[in-house]
Design goal:
Layout lengths: L1 H25 L1 E5 L14 E5 L10 E6 L2 E9 L4 E5 L2 E4 L2 E3 L12 E5 L4 E5 L9 H4 L2 E2 L3 E10 L1 E2 L3
Antiparallel strand pairs: 1-2, 2-11, 3-4, 3-11, 4-9, 5-6, 5-8, 6-7, 9-10, 11-12
Length: 160
């Protein structure tokens, strides 16, 4: 009986240390999605956990950032130094056609070329016709990024 209690205490202690360590290392932030611009990846009312201590941001990552007084959840399309060219439904990044399987609605009639500077990111919602994003407010600075969306926990899934 004592051995069983000792094992349980050790397991609980290890679990506690892991949880506290994870919170300190990852520094998670919890957000409720209050928009439909990321449909179908994220829906209005979904809850997400964003990791604040993130390393290099990759194209297609879903991030949370602050622009003005608002927090947004969008997908990273352009990275620092990229040249993006939009024409109708075709997106080219640095001259190469970029395909996206997660978008539902198109750009509509939209043509523009953007050159991103150092520490600038271009973000867009997956639901392109219903998204306020870099097409409207321009690129975002790395310093405005709160974190990478790590997990959607209501319902529980990991964004692709």
């Amino acid at each position: 009986m004592l051995k069983t209690l000792r094992k349980i205490n050790i397991i609980l202690a290890i679990t506690f240390i892991f949880l506290v360590g994870s919170i300190v290392v990852w520094n998670p932030a919890f957000f409720v999605v209050d928009q439909i611009s990321m449909f179908p990846t994220l829906n209005h009312g979904d809850r997400v956990i964003a990791i604040k201590n993130f390393s290099n941001i990759q194209r297609k990552d879903v991030i949370v950032f602050k622009k003005g007084i608002y927090y947004y959840c969008k997908r990273v399309i352009g990275l620092p130094g990229d040249t993006l060219h939009f024409k109708s439904d075709i997106l080219r990044i640095n001259g190469k056609r970029f395909t996206e399987k997660y978008i539902v609605l198109s750009f509509a009639e939209f043509e523009r070329t953007i050159k991103l500077g150092q520490n600038e990111y271009y973000v867009m919602g997956d639901n392109r016709l219903m998204s306020r994003d870099s097409r409207e407010f321009g690129s975002i600075k790395e310093s405005s990024i709160i974190g990478k969306v790590w997990i959607k926990w209501r319902p529980l899934t990991i964004p692709k």
